[in-house]
Amino acid sequence: MSIQRPAQLRQRLASVLLSLSFTCAWAEQASTPLPAVQTSQAPGFFRLAVGPHTVTALYDGHIQIAPALLKGRSAKDIQSLLARMFLQTEQGMQTAVNAFLVHTGKNLVLVDAGAAQCFGPTMGNIVANIRASGYQPEDVDTVLLTHLHADHTCGLVLPDGQPVFPNATVWASQADADYWLSPKEAEAAPTGRQPLFKMAQNAVAPYQKAERFKTYRTGDAIVDGFSVVPSPGHTPGHSSYLFDAGQDSLLIWGDIVHAHAVQMAHPEVSIEFDTNPRQAIESRKDVFRQAAGKRWWVAGAHLPFPGIGHVRQDAKGHAWVPVEFGPLPSAPKK
């Protein structure tokens, strides 16, 4: 029988103690319950520098759109286009609802206001995300509406009918106002669409009462840094807004696209909600050509959040190039 020396005994004892400590630590860790699964997302805002100015994309929520609402290609073609982008689900296409806040240095401009609760609980997050992004609804001095559909206007008012943006002047095209705010047009509309007229009228009512609702015609000046790019068809006065920051420009195009997987490659595909499908198709083709040719940044109300990117010219049609996440340039020191 071999006799271990003191040094060997000490080494073996240290090894045993170390093994015991690992075993105890593992047992203690194994007995500690896991925390609850977390399902909340980060607040829905994203910033982009356009020239020296800052644009904040705001996520209002999402809605499911049935592929059958898309017109101009066969159901098989549409299913194939959606499938290659992994977008088809049993519930339909998940379609984002976005708005955009532009700090021009002189004005804080909100383009579109979201749906609030007009279309259910999956939307209505604009105000919360404005606050999360560091602003307050009272800071907004101008609201530009691309059109008067409820998913762009219901967010203008609180449930009690008070304005969400009490210090803002709200702008819409004269053609859209003439249509959506007309009792005569509402009465003549199909029964299923008549509630949309009422929603639009309710949304702008407190601003009209405060004399803060204004309309413009093509060529009118509205707010410094912005010009109107007429893009009718989806509604009679549907408009896009070009924010020109000198060396950089951003086109906020409203509802030019509802299904990027389909309409980028096939702009001839319209959607059931278009007031004038043929005109909407021509507007989409024209906007695509301009955005790709001039390399504008683009922001879309129904593009995947944050809804910002570029339009790329392809051999056949166009493609969507989403923005990459990254930091903004540091603000100059005062």
Explain what you see:
The protein has 334 residues and is of the alpha/beta class. A seven-stranded mixed sheet has the order 1-2-4-5-6-7-8. The N and C termini lie far apart (83 Å).
**Which stretches are poorly predicted, pLDDT < 50 over at least 5 residues?**
none
Q: Tell me what the CATH architecture is.
A: 4-Layer Sandwich
Count of helical stretches: 9
Please write the CATH class name: Alpha Beta
Mean pLDDT: 91
| Helical amount | 25-40%
C-alpha end-to-end distance: 83 Å
CATH fold-level topology: Metallo-beta-lactamase, Chain A
- The helix/strand series, from N terminus to C terminus, equals HEEEHEEHEHEHHHEEEEHEHEEE
Describe the main β-sheet briefly: 7 strands, mixed
Number of domains: 1
At the fourth level of CATH, the homologous superfamily is: Ribonuclease Z/Hydroxyacylglutathione hydrolase-like
Note the beta-strand portion. Answer: 15-25%
Largest sheet strand order: 1-2-4-5-6-7-8
Record field, number of beta strands:
15
Overall form: globular
User: What integer value in Å does the Rg equal?
Assistant: 27 Å
Supply the helix-strand structural class: alpha/beta
Instruction: Work out the oligomeric state of the chains in this entry.
Output: single chain
